[in-house]
Amino acid sequence: MATAYVLINCELGSEEAIITQLKGLEGVKEVHGTFGAYDILAKIESDTVEKLRETITWKIRKIEKIRSTLTLMGIEGQT
Asked: Kindly report the CA angle at 22 between 34 and 15, in degrees rounded to 5?
């Protein structure tokens, strides 16, 4: 399972609408509004890194009023 966390900056006042759209996307497991440098945090999971990339590039980044994103890819920890 591939996991990514996407930090999102959006236009002022558009947070709720964007959160609603994100929750409707396949692979989006969690969405939270945040305070600080970013407006929204989304957790995305998929079977492959390629599917994650497609979701971020062609679905999330295309949502109107999103200004920028920063993606953090999760890695498997050692046990």
From this structure: 40
Each as own residue / partner, the long-range contacts of residues 48-55 (CB below 8 Å, 24 or more positions apart, any chain) are 48/2, 49/2, 49/73, 51/2, 51/27, 52/2, 52/3, 52/4, 52/27, 55/25, 55/26, 55/27, 55/28
pTM: 0.90
Give the model confidence (pLDDT) of 2-53 as tens digits. 999 999 999 999 999 999 999 999 999 999 999 999 999 999 999 999 999 9
Asked whether the beta carbons of 42 and 31 are under 8 A apart, the reply is yes
The CATH number given to 2-73 is 3.30.70.920
Q: Would you say 31 and 21 are in contact if contact means Cβ atoms under 8 Å apart?
A: no
Domain ranges of the chain: 2-73
